[in-house]
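User: I'm putting together a teaching handout on how sequence relates to shape, and I'd like one worked example. Could you take SAM-dependent chlorinase/fluorinase from Actinokineospora terrae, show the sequence you're using, and then write out its predicted structure as tokens right after it?

Assistant: Happy to. First the sequence, then the structure tokens directly below it.
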Amino acid sequence: MPHTSDVGYDWVCFTTDYGRADGFPAVCEGVIARTAPHARVLHVSHEVPRQDVRGGADLLVRSVPYLPRAVHLAVVDPGVGTARRPVAIVSPEGVLIGPDNGLLPAAAEVLGGAIAAYEITEFHLEPVSATFHGRDVFAPAAAQVANGVNPNALGPAVDLDTLIRLPEPVTHIEPGRVTTEVIGADSFGNVQLAVTDLVADPGTVVHAQVGDRSLEAVVGRTFADARSGDAVVLLDSAGRVAIAVNGGSAAEILLPRPGDRAVLLLAAAPAPPARS
């Protein structure tokens, strides 16, 4: 019998790049339901851009502070079927289950920091498909932990220092210029950047360039600080600088891809009027 703990989970929060067309999320949810019928599945997103590990990691970081105490099942897995490890990372506020490719550690930090990690070698469905570990490896492990199985029963301990971590995005801030990276774009067409400081006052004019495309924007606090159809640079709900178009899509103009270089050129703020 698996070693159980006195701590189970009522929720499995589920994030993937699977999309909805092929039924993959439903199959994984079915595996969870067969093993842990009490656990409710909260679908965070299945629209992470295909194989975009950084985008998935960023989505988790933005989401987990607002989710219930849970098993966080996340699968964005370009290396499925290779030697990359399936892992469970234990944090004070939940257990994260998914591939060891950089997807999970930043979210573990948000949940209080990684306490322990285990390679998932037990509870697989058999036979294990080389291309669908979400169904055959990760969902069964998530269900067992939701049932109260101690994560240390999933497999051997993993040295936390060996977990794959994504490199930090490169950002340089200098007078009048910010150079950073694109994290992604949301379904509204807002382009999210790695930088978290606007370094400019509201009303400052910005020339925003991503790759070989650009637009003119104004620094603002809300979308409405730009006229309808015009662009605004603001801090979004995740605390990152974003390029948006009021009533439109900055992504359709800039065609950003995750990791693209982004440059914000800031116009000099107007001088205050002279006192008479």
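A couple of points you could highlight for students: The chain has a mean pLDDT of 93. The radius of gyration is 22 Å.
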